[in-house]
Amino acid sequence: MKQFPILYWPRKTTADNDYQLARKVINNATGVMPDVLTGELDLVGFLSENPNATVYYPVFCESTGWWGELLGAPAMVTDKMIISPECQLMVIESAKNASRGRGKNQLLAAEIYPTSGFFKKMNSGIATVADMLATDAGTILALFSGKSQSQFVNILESTGNSYLGCIGRF
Fold this sequence. Notes:
It is built from five helices and nine strands. It is an alpha+beta fold. The strands form two sheets. A five-stranded mixed sheet has the order 2-1-3-5-4. It has a four-stranded antiparallel sheet with strand order 7-8-6-9. Helix 4 runs antiparallel to helix 5. It is elongated, with a radius of gyration of 17 Å. It starts with a strand and ends with a strand.
């Protein structure tokens, strides 16, 4: 059972400046050099086996849909750390440990149909689009950043869309 900070790094670590910087930033924040996981990461399984672990998950500027594997997992994004203009680390913890959230913004995921009314309401300050993925069913899986989960859910329901769940806060 791992309890140390865990840096998941899906790229080669050799001569990777972001990798070295990520380890340094985590060490500065926690006082401990992180263990490193490379290759495939089964986040659901990992957090089930290591509920007290904190996973630092890199999101590179060209990444889309990184948050999909968090949906349905016992995990929440509790913070983010900017490493460079090309990379930021999402701090992911078991949902049972994440209730102490560090910030006020939440990452809110939803499945929506692309209607103009929905986007007009979202632009009113309730939430900001952070990432989107189109599905084969004609819906969009979208990630929003917002302060009020209840207002977000009310807007979704009023436009006939599905709410998938809050995946984090920062």
